[in-house]
Amino acid sequence: MEKEPLLSQLVKRCIRSRDLRQARKLHAQIVATNSRYFLNLLIDMYGKCGGVDEARRVFAAVAPQSNVVTWNVMLTAYAQNGHLEDAKSHFDAMPRRNVLTWNTMLSAAFSMPRGTAAGAAAVFARMPQRTAVSWNAMASAYSQYGHFAEAKNTLDRAPERDRVSGLMPAWDGIPWAAMIGLCGEAGRVESAKSLFDAMPERDVFPWGALIQAHALDQDLEQARRAFDRMPQHNLQSCTSMITAFAQGRDLEQAQRVFDGMGEHDVVSRTSLI
């Protein structure tokens, strides 16, 4: 028991470094604890380090005594490593599912190489209960595949309250910013602008996402124009603008934005280097 806190730290360090070789070295120590928590952590560690086969073997060994958490950890390992068919088979075989199970499968259905918005919609339709994460993930799935009307409709249909936790989900600018960001990363700047223009209200998050979309498109003029139009700036928007100028080799403008910031962090400082 005295060694478990140290072991937990070693496992978390291994997960952060994605070191599969180190994960294998920790295997025997973790199994020796005979702790369900550590066995679940072992599966999670292998999954995050890319060792799906190792994770599968551990799961098979503990399956008779496993609970829904163990099943969810294995499902996540499949999903994170792009094993969509294995994830589906595992999901179908689960004796019990909870909200996390469904959210994991929903994300897997559209985020994997062969994933589709239709696949995500099929999972979404089957969900017995949904959280803010579920609605945001479905909207993001639609936007990633260019179905912006469906994405907006999904957000419009979202309930005012998260039915599971009873907490108010963030239906303000955050899911919109996520969709705008996905369009920017996909090179669909016009789609990003259309989404931005369709928003009834905007906070700093969609503005920051729009700046980043223009920056990725190497359009410094439009990025600066969006930055200047913002009613207020935050750390994210300033850092995005600094990065855009730095990538465009306009270091004087990047320094000017940096000097005008009220606060700095490691990312904003690194952007100038």
TrEMBL record:
<feature type="repeat" description="PPR">
    <location>
        <begin position="67"/>
        <end position="101"/>
    </location>
</feature>
<dbReference type="GO" id="GO:0003723">
    <property type="term" value="F:RNA binding"/>
</dbReference>
<dbReference type="InterPro" id="IPR046960">
    <property type="entry name" value="PPR_At4g14850-like_plant"/>
</dbReference>
<dbReference type="GO" id="GO:0009451">
    <property type="term" value="P:RNA modification"/>
</dbReference>
<dbReference type="InterPro" id="IPR002885">
    <property type="entry name" value="PPR_rpt"/>
</dbReference>
<dbReference type="InterPro" id="IPR011990">
    <property type="entry name" value="TPR-like_helical_dom_sf"/>
</dbReference>
<dbReference type="Pfam" id="PF01535">
    <property type="entry name" value="PPR"/>
</dbReference>
<protein>
    <recommendedName>
        <fullName>Pentacotripeptide-repeat region of PRORP domain-containing protein</fullName>
    </recommendedName>
</protein>
<keyword id="KW-0677">Repeat</keyword>
<dbReference type="Pfam" id="PF13041">
    <property type="entry name" value="PPR_2"/>
</dbReference>
<feature type="repeat" description="PPR">
    <location>
        <begin position="172"/>
        <end position="206"/>
    </location>
</feature>
<feature type="repeat" description="PPR">
    <location>
        <begin position="234"/>
        <end position="268"/>
    </location>
</feature>
